[in-house]
Amino acid sequence: MKMLLTFGLFIATAAIATGCVERKLKVNTSPQGAMVSLNDEQIGLSPVTMTFQWYGDYAVRISKQGYQTLSTHRPLKAPWYDAFPFDFLAQVLWPGRIVDSTEWTFELQPQQPIMRDDLIRRSQALQEELGSDQP
Fold it and tell me: What's the half-sphere exposure (Cβ side, CA atoms, 13 Å) at 99?
């Protein structure tokens, strides 16, 4: 009985003391202070750090007044220890915490003003294109 109690105490201690994986993603922009959205969810103004649960393709949208809005996709690749069978070791049995940090940096382009003459030319070209399609 004493041996069973000792074994149970050992298992409980091991379960509490085992490590886990902490996943962090930091998004930087140049210039800073842009609103960052991942998968249509605003996460904050850059530079911003968030924790995440899954790896994969993220839809990224970054906007700042005076700059062109950036809409793109970026893969967030899993490290080697997140693949079977290493994931069990890293997430359950590893003594201590594993921190997986990823950093993305995006450069924003200044907003280009639309010139009045260019807008008129594009409008005329569209009108001509639409006019030639009509019977």
Answer: 7
Structure-token pair, residue 14: 């091991």
Residue ranges of domains in the chain, CATH in brackets = 20-125 (2.60.40)
Burial 86-102 (b: 16+ CB within 10 A, else e): eeeebeeebeeeeebee
Residue 130 structure tokens: 């639409």
What pTM, to 2 d.p., does this model score?
A: 0.64
Q: Residue 4, SS3?
A: helix
Average pLDDT of the chain, as a whole number = 81
Positive or negative, the Cα torsion across 31, 112, 57, 40?
Answer: positive
Q: What is the pLDDT of residue 80?
A: 66
Helix/strand/coil for 100: strand
CA–CA dist 86, 82 (Å, integer):
6
The count of residues in the chain is 135
pLDDT by residue (tens digit) across 18-48?
Answer: 457 788 999 999 999 999 999 999 999 999 9
